Amino acid sequence: MILTFGTIHDGTRYRAKDREKALIFQEICANPEATRKEMAQKYGFRPTSVSRAVQEMLDDGLIAEGSSREPGKPGRPEFFLKPNYNLLTAVSMYIEGRELKGALINPGEEIIAADSVYIPKDADNIKFKGLMLNLIDKLSSSTPGGSTLIGTALSLVGTVNPVNKLWISSARFSAIKNLDFNKLETEKNIRITIRRSLDTELEYQLIKNNELTKKNVLLFHWGFGIGAAYAYRGKILGSAIGRFGEIGHTHVGSVKNKKCLCGAYGCLETEAAIWALVPLLKPDYPEADEDERKFSRFLRRPGIAELDIINNALSFTSIGLINLYKIFYPDIIMFIGPFTENESVFSKLIARFKAELPDYAREAVDYRVIMEGFRGAVTGNVYNLFRNKLRILLTAGY
């Protein structure tokens, strides 16, 4: 997030001095020895403009003066400048498996507090709201003194309408229907934004790796469920109804007797998702767990990745992946989830995938693995919350 402060006014009507102020703040964040004089020299800004921008940020509490560069030296002292990231904080929450994970975070991507809560599979709207609000209260209680908590951002699974702030449905939690976060905002007087988890994770990857915005990128998740997100040259695609890339709920034909969490029969997830595999593994491996982090560790045990159950899941997943590829033809496929974190499973998946590709496409795809789950969602969730607030603070008032 730090590296994007200098472009915070892009896409809006702004003045040269607004961009100067944003660049000065970015330099202060990136350079622990930034001084007024050095920034004026580096960017070619007028010293008076730098001084005015710095003074506004000092007055707003966005930055602070540190120690003097050469204490005791005659003349006007030159102070180092440092950001005060804790001026603003936000609560970021996302679902992984059946857990709601949350963090109190600042614009410097520093996590001040973190916690999680288990969501029962039969949780309804009331139950989920209660668990979520309790977690928000717990995290927000760690807000530093002098900090402004600007809102809560959630990444959700299933059918999510971010414009109307409506969580329409989720196969994972079938009793949750049309959960209205607009209404919750009014009731609790808190700002809430919602988005689909895979879209949030993909946006974080685009922010973190600017070269991805020039490519077509598919994010493929194989874990508790199976799904995808897609970005066309930096723009994440979606649908009017709030669902996209639901490859896990496409039919694979030969398993019509297996009922999916979504209520349909014969979905890809019934053969390859963690929720479907764990009951098959439990009799011989009672430690097998639906939690994605625990399942990742389970897969690392000798021999587990070679089990027939895992190989069967791999066969079905490779079919889903090749079908997605033939729809979107991405330049880059990014993988997230415990299966693709496992080197043995991942190499077999890519080998089967490549075998189905036409010759002209076989070397045209770049593969990247995201490790340790949806951690990018923590930052990606609150990215726009912070940018919107900082854009105001980084607009020059002089």
Task: Calculate the terminal CA-CA distance, rounded to whole Å.
Answer: 26 Å
Uncertain spans: none
> How many strand units?
15
Strand content: 15-25%
What is the radius of gyration?
A: 24 Å
CATH superfamily annotation of the largest domain: ATPase, nucleotide binding domain
**Order of helical and strand elements:** HHHEEEEEHEEEEHEHEEEHHHHEHHEH
Give the strand line-up of the largest sheet: 5-4-3-6-10
Q: Just give the CATH class of the largest domain.
A: Alpha Beta
Describe, in plain words, how this protein is organized in 3D.
It is a single chain. With 398 residues, the chain is an alpha/beta fold. It folds into 3 domains: 2-83, Winged helix-like DNA-binding domain superfamily/Winged helix DNA-binding domain (Arc Repressor Mutant, subunit A, Orthogonal Bundle); 87-201 and 377-388, ATPase, nucleotide binding domain (Nucleotidyltransferase, domain 5); 208-370, 2-Layer Sandwich (Nucleotidyltransferase, domain 5), CATH 3.30.420. 38% of the residues lie in helices and 21% in strands. It has helices at residues 16-30, 36-43, 47-60, 125-140, 181-188, 197-208, 269-272, 274-281, 292-299, 308-328, 338-341, 343-356, 376-393; strands spanning 63-68, 79-83, 88-96, 99-105, 111-118, 148-156, 159-161, 166-169, 179-180, 192-196, 216-222, 226-232, 235-236, 332-336, 366-370. The strands form 4 sheets. The chain has a 5-stranded mixed sheet with strand order 5-4-3-6-10, with helices on both faces. Strands 13-12-11-14-15 form a 5-stranded mixed sheet, sandwiched between helices. A hairpin with a 3-residue loop joins strand 11 and strand 12. Helix 1 crosses helix 3 (47-60), helix 6 packs across helix 13 (376-393) and helix 10 packs across helix 12. The longest helix has 21 residues, at 308-328. The two termini are 26 Å apart.
